[in-house]
Amino acid sequence: MYQLKRFKLILGLLVAPVLIIGGLTVESAATEVVMYKNPSCGCCGAWAKHMRAAGFTVKELPREDMEAVKEKYGVSAGLASCHTALVDGYVIEGHVPASDVLRLLKDRPDVVGLTAPGMPMQSPGMQAEGKNPRNYDVLAFDQQGGVKVYHRYE
Asked: What is the reported pTM?
């Protein structure tokens, strides 16, 4: 009996690190943001900083052909903003707060992604760091062109 308990303890000690490391790898992949942006855009870098502060890893890819990027990922002109990001299979267009991206990744709705069309002045990356988003909507959009309010900032 003693040897069986000892065997289980040793097995548990050997397997636990593998499970923990495996969990970290999956979690890290889910929080990587690949952001396409115009090389001269300053607010895009500020949004990336906001996302990093929320725990995301952000890879910034400067591109001159942002219209082609938006077309490739299904972002219509009416939903467009200055940068287009990809996070765990979703498109994040513009100055969407990190809290909305985290909620999206947790809830996993059947949408293409989220957008903050245009460049809302009181959004992360457009206003002073640390201020709360105000006076705009974050929209969810789907493959069929459907759009609905995902989060209203008042």
From this structure: 0.81
